[in-house]
Design brief:
The chain is α/β, with parallel strands linked by helices. It has two domains: about 80 residues, Winged helix-like DNA-binding domain superfamily/Winged helix DNA-binding domain (Arc Repressor Mutant, subunit A, Orthogonal Bundle), CATH 1.10.10.10; about 250 residues, Vaccinia Virus protein VP39 (Rossmann fold), CATH 3.40.50.150. The chain is about 50% helix and about 15% strand. It has 14 helices and nine strands. Helix 1 packs across helix 4, helix 1 crosses helix 6 and helix 3 crosses helix 4.
Length: about 350
Amino acid sequence: MAVDPEKLNAFVGKFANDLGAAMHGSTILIGEQLGFYRALAESGPISSEDLAHKTGTAERYLREWLSGQAASGYVEYDSSTKRYWMTPEQKFALTDENGPVFLPGAYYIVSSVYKDQRKIAEAIRAGKGFGWHEHHVDLFQGTKKFFRPGYVANLVSTWLPKLEGVVSKLEAGARVADVGCGLGASTIIMGKAFPKSEFIGYDYHTESIEWARNDAVTAGVAGNVDFEVAASDKFSGKNFDLVTFFDCLHDMGDPVGAAKHVHQALKPDGNWMVVEPFAGQSVEANLNPVGRIFYNASLQICLPSSLSQEVGAGLGAQASDAALMAVFREGGFTRSRKAVETPFNRVFEARP
């Protein structure tokens, strides 16, 4: 087969770009963990020597870190003064953990899959699952850090108001089950916004629930927010006004079984909100930067999680609207619709 030199060079160029991004990822975590981004954002144009003094770190290492960040476009560099600084956009995206766009959190997820890579490869070879609880702890922290900004930006202001009659129920005082809650970011956000309502977060992962309970106390919502260890098809309680699933239905081995359990746990006029990763309706519709993120995450996290459980439906993170609607119907829900979507999420509402 003849190789086109120009096409080969273009592909090698793409490889170089991807390799640089892969090597850059762990340095983003270094910057977040050692406070480099925050210190740089606070300082304005600054030399590597002065930033090293400010952060209490070794200047030679920091100079290399700053040069790599500048090469990656994450900080700016003035060659005439040999000083570094951050633009307002870089500061916003790299330092504000409570803002709607906080990028470093995603790299904890990347860190976890690299640490688990050999185990995942063996699961693929053997056709076995690899459970959520089997992953490195970076996955749990990273999932919270990555998804929480989107929830902060959209959950209370946009997503819940798009559901039929939900906000008025929450303001008056409702019972809510947040299933697959992980470290409880979504549960706590809702608990803060609606203090008259009772929220219970459920997750089968004991360590995540313990972390969530601690965060609820820190956030000052322990009075109306609680957490319990339970699987999605076995969580306790009935007569919920609202049940929520945030970015987790596709991870479940038996999503239809989970849907049936939600159906019997809801009040007759209750609402089921399902937040899922953004996806088109076909493979070709997902061959884009967002699809690239979610297909690769699905291979290493979501699909192995589902295949490790009973049934092992393996929906994957890029399940189509039609596939998710089928889950709702088979679970006994007579009405379902896509209520809203963002560049990273789809929000569905199902009614009994």
